[in-house]
Amino acid sequence: MQKLGCLLFIGSLCAYSQVNGVRAAISPIPPYPLDGSFRLDMQDQYVFLKAPGEYVVSYPGALDPVRRAGSNGRIEFPVTFPAQVAPVIDVQVATLENGEYLYSYTVTNRGIAAVALDRVALRMRSIEALESVKAPVNTPGWNFTLLRNAEEHIGPVWKAMSPQQTRNGTVQMSFRTPAKPGIVEMVFQGSPVDRSSVNDLPAPVKASIERLDRGTLASVSVLTVGPKYAPEVNPFAVAVDLHAQAAMWSEVRGTPYTLEVRDRLRAYMDAVAPFDRPVEEIATKPEVHTSARPLSYEDVLLQTVLTATLGTGK
Amino acid sequence: MAKVKRNIVLLMLGIAAVSHVGRAQDIYVQPWETTTVYLVCQSGQVWLQNCNVSASIAAVEPTGGHYHGGTPRYGNPRQGTLNPSSGNTGTQGYVSSLYSATRIAQAEKVTVCAQGGGCTESFIQVRRPNLVEMWGGWAHVMIGSTSSHVFNHFFTPTTRDRVLAVVAQYANEYSGASGLPEPWEPVGVNDSSLPTGGVFDICATVSTCAPSAQNPSGGANPWSGPHQSSAHDNGDAADFRGNTQPNNIINDTAVKNRFRQICQQQGLPVAIHESIGSSNEHIHCAAY
Questions:
Q1: Which domain holds residue A172?
Q2: Exposure check for chain A: N or C terminus, fewer CB within 10 A?
């Protein structure tokens, strides 16, 4: 339940442990001052976190001759952002006879989401992988495109044609590619909030909202399995990449499986490359046999890549 | 139709009905960036006044494409800083703190603790966004990957396109050309940037590295140069093989000079012939 809360309150305050009901947290969004006093460091801030997952626009009435200020002399109203979706992913990877992979996803925007799901994209890390995508299939009502431009590169995109229907809906999509499976980010964006009321806000307030719309609160990233590596990728490179991921997960809530995968991959890396050496010289493949069973979502991501890409991990 | 079916229904390896239900979202910043963050104490959905809170930051190894550790010798602190890193939430209910990233792209674990309460662990991800990995092609091969920096071919999309244009023009001009000391080969593209940018410390673990401005004593030098150009931090540079190994630029001075011109014509105006005569000879082409 705690984890679920963290997902919902994207970009706000999340915690994993607490004692006596009190916990600390860090947020990139300024909290709404509890004493109602907007100090100097908040003079240029116009969007606040009123409570976890609750954003509010608040600015001095003097900035806006049109709207009426409240008793605190400020104009305030709630606001939602595209990041306030609550996605759940199911993913399947199948190896095809011709060496390609079939990636299939089911995404559900949970009922606790504040906004409808509007866009689902895989953040591909190479344009070659993006261009290798074949035979995309998607849920009716969604439109598949390949997005690529000089400023942004996020890979296959499924965009809702009628986003309000997808607030609690389920989206299915699949495609084939020779790119090998790795752990990648799936990016979710909620429908743009009605910003018609924002257009006539004072310029600095409008700019503040737009900055968050495009930045911190523009989308939610969730790790999943997707096309990541070149078909000819060296297994050592995959092992090193997975090890880094397992090491990071181990830092905050490593399960026995994640810890064991991390340690076994580390042992393999130390054995085949005790010093810095060219990867092309490394032909030994990793053998990762674990006694622990995968328990968490992250565990299963690791196991899937170990199995599908490296042929080990059972 | 039958053939399509046969090709698709084969080995199911994947995750059946395993769902993601969320986790703390990371905070994203770029190398050298500073940003304000807020430390709070919380009880349920309520924030607390007058609560002592403190935070610490530690680099997570190995992340950011650096598959090595090591203590900084020159240049960069090991991780970013929070200033202040502790305080009392006061009547307003928060402590405002300035986070400053270093030149290193990496994950940094932030541990925030409430006095007499619990701690939160989350990540600040220091990374340059939107870099893309280049794979090999008809006119080029990817080279130079080492066990310390396995993924070394990340570019901005714009520079990636320019590099492709360079190798294509070079191939068009020299593939099948006669009168040269060796035939054209797909050219080796070496270091650009690491997956999330930031300092590319190619001497991280190499004890034989030559002295340089950032590494005056030479030798292993983690978290500093000597890829000193900021273009190597940002995905806006590539080094093309200029020695005598396979997939080199044709070993001829006029050809190498022409290669530099091609870089400049294709939008990579900084084209430098480096380490001439050594095993590391290459042509560095960059957007700046």
A1: 87-229
A2: N
Please enumerate, as own/partner, the contacts of A71-79 that have beta carbons within 8 Å and a separation of 24 or more.
Answer: A72/A36, A74/A38, A78/A50, A78/A54, A79/A47, A79/A55, A79/A193, A79/A209
**How many other C-beta atoms can be found within 10 angstroms of the C-beta atom of residue A163?**
21
Phi-psi region of A150 (alpha: psi -120 to 50; beta: other; left: phi over 0): alpha
CB < 8 Å from A in window 120-159 of B: 120-123, 130, 132-137, 143-148, 150-151, 154, 156-158
Residues of chain B with Cβ-Cβ distance to A269 below 8 Å are: 67, 147
Q: What ipTM did this prediction achieve?
A: 0.89
Q: Chain A contacts of B119, Cβ < 8 Å? A: 17, 23-24
Handedness of CA B172, B175, B179, B181 (dihedral sign): positive
Residue B90: other Cβ atoms inside 10 A: 16
Beta strands at B132-133 and B154-155: parallel, antiparallel or unpaired: antiparallel
User: Which pLDDT does position A4 carry in this prediction?
Assistant: 24
- Touching check for A98 and chain B: CB below 8 Å? yes
Contact call for A126 and B132, based on CB within 8 A: yes
> Which residues of chain A are within 8 Å of residue B190 when distances are taken between CB atoms?
none
Strands B282-286 and A47-51: unpaired
**pLDDT, tens only, A107-162:** 988 888 888 888 899 988 899 999 999 999 888 888 888 887 656 666 788 888 77
pLDDT 10s digits, B117-153: 889 999 999 999 889 999 999 999 999 999 999 999 9
Contact between residue B250 and residue B181 where contact means Cβ atoms under 8 Å apart? yes
A-B contacts at Cβ under 8 angstroms: 282
CATH number at residue A168: 2.60.40.290
- Select from A79, A107, A140 the last residue of a domain: A79
| Set of chain A residues whose Cβ sits within 8 Å of the Cβ of B135 | 126, 128-129, 230
Residue A292 backbone dihedrals phi, psi, to 5 degrees: -80, 150
Neighbours of A89 (CB within 10 A): 21
CB contact under 8 A, A25 and B39: yes
- Tell whether A213 and A117 lie within a shared domain: yes
Rounded CA-CA distance A3/A261 in Å is 23
Closest-CA distance of chain B to residue A303, Å? 9
Q: Residue A294 to residues A238, A240, A260, B15: CA-CA distances in angstroms?
A: 19, 20, 10, 11
Q: What's the pLDDT tens digit per position in A292-301? A: 999 998 999 9
**CB contact at 8 A, A6 and A83:** no
* Residue B247 to residue B249: CA distance in whole angstroms: 7
Report the gap between the CA of A248 and the closest CA in chain B (Å).
Answer: 7
In sequence order, the 6+-apart residues with CB closer than 8 A to the CB of A279 are A234, A236, A237, B145, B146, B147, B150
**Do A36 and A146 have their domain in common?**
no
Statement to judge: residues A112 and A211 lie in one domain: yes
Which residues does chain A have within 8 Å of residue B206's beta carbon, measured at their own beta carbons? 276
Whether residue A107 sits in one domain with residue A38: no
